[in-house]
Design goal:
CATH architecture of the largest domain: 2-Layer Sandwich
Number of helices: 8
Largest sheet: 10 strands, mixed
CATH class of the largest domain: Alpha Beta
Strand content: 25-35%
Radius of gyration: 22 Å
Structural class: alpha+beta
Helix content: 10-25%
Distance between the termini: 60 Å
Order of helices and strands: EHHEEEEHEEHHEEEEEEHHEEH
CATH superfamily of the largest domain: Pseudouridine synthase
CATH topology of the largest domain: Pseudouridine synthase
Length: about 325
């Protein structure tokens, strides 16, 4: 990492002082720097903050401190690796075509599978880093989707909108202000009709530091509603609505009732997953297909839908063919 500060390296810029704007106010310093230091790894940003090379109003601070409008942020000279965002993954050139909704406050995209929403945990970059690299405007994730999950993903363009959306998500169990639903293929036959699951979920770390959720009475409240859409011989296509956003919530709830998500490598059935790969399923069958909410600024009702991607639609077509032939 030492070469990032070498004066002879190409792409290096002189030290600069930035003034925090109104829309940037309230965010963490590390997130502020990630947005402005495009191409600099987050791990290096943490290092220069800890070393005191970044100064906030002339003083040393922690990466977690929140900046305010008018604050002066001194940034040391750094070499930007302009290729850093090349690791985002396939589909980069398609993001513009995948926009489902956009105004001055919100950006909603149809997230492709196989791309993380943000960098970290060994990943060079994610969707948020890619989008920030293409724009100087404020962008922050309102919520997250698993790397292998496709569908509706919401980003805020200003701090006030972000706070409003987060508050709506926190109050969702009691007020149902944001309605999120997924199309999910479960391994096994669903018995009966619509059913609500409320198993409490606790986040645990597996060997190697990987996080997952497990059912535990000491866990956090989690609420999912499973509704069957189509029944096949060994699988059931469901629509799942969630009022809470716990880690891997749909996947953990599905496993808890013995009907894991098809293709799920963490909570799923390895033998079934192997069989489904022959039908073209190479990821978990989980797609965020619809999001309904009241716009935090305009007050209008917003209803956004993302069509089922071709890879998942192809799996259903194979299951339908098998059902007709049986």
């Amino acid at each position: 990492m030492a070469d990032l500060q070498s004066p002879s390296q190409p792409g290096k810029r002189p030290a600069e002082t930035r003034t925090v704007t109104e829309v940037e106010s309230g965010q963490r310093l590390d997130n502020y720097l990630v947005r402005h230091l495009k191409g600099v790894p987050r791990t290096h940003i943490y290092r220069i903050v800890r070393d005191g090379q970044v100064r906030l109003n002339g003083g040393r601070v922690r990466p977690s401190v929140r900046v305010s409008e008018g604050d002066r942020v001194r940034v040391p000279p750094l070499r930007r690796d302009v290729s850093q965002n090349a690791g985002v993954g396939r589909g980069n050139s398609d993001f513009r075509a995948s926009i489902l909704f956009e105004d001055s406050n919100l950006l909603v995209i149809d997230k492709p599978p196989g791309i993380a929403v943000h960098g970290g945990s060994g990943l060079r970059g994610g969707i948020i880093e890619f989008l920030r690299s293409r724009s100087e405007q404020y962008l922050e994730l309102v919520h997250r989707l698993d790397k292998e999950t496709s569908g509706v993903l919401v980003l805020a363009k200003d701090m006030a909108t972000l706070r409003s959306m987060h508050e709506a998500l926190r109050q969702n169990v009691s007020q149902n202000r944001i309605r999120k639903s997924y199309q999910v293929l479960l391994v096994g036959q669903w018995r009966g009709g619509r059913r609500a699951l409320s198993h409490r979920l606790q986040t645990v770390r597996r060997p190697g530091g990987v996080k997952r959720s497990q059912v535990d009475t000491r866990g956090r409240e989690a609420y999912s509603v499973f509704d069957p859409l189509e029944r096949y011989s060994e699988h059931t296509l469901m629509r799942v609505g969630i009022k809470t956003g716990r880690l891997h919530q749909v996947r953990a709830h599905a496993q808890a009732i013995g009907l894991p998500v098809a293709g799920d490598r963490v909570y799923g059935d390895s033998d079934q997953n192997r069989a489904l790969r022959k039908l073209g399923l190479h990821r978990q069958f989980l797609h965020a297909d619809r999001l309904r909410f009241t716009h935090p600024v305009t007050g209008r009702k917003v209803d956004i839908q993302a069509p089922l991607p071709e890879d998942l639609a192809g799996v259903l077509a194979c299951l339908e063919t098998s059902r007709r032939e049986s």
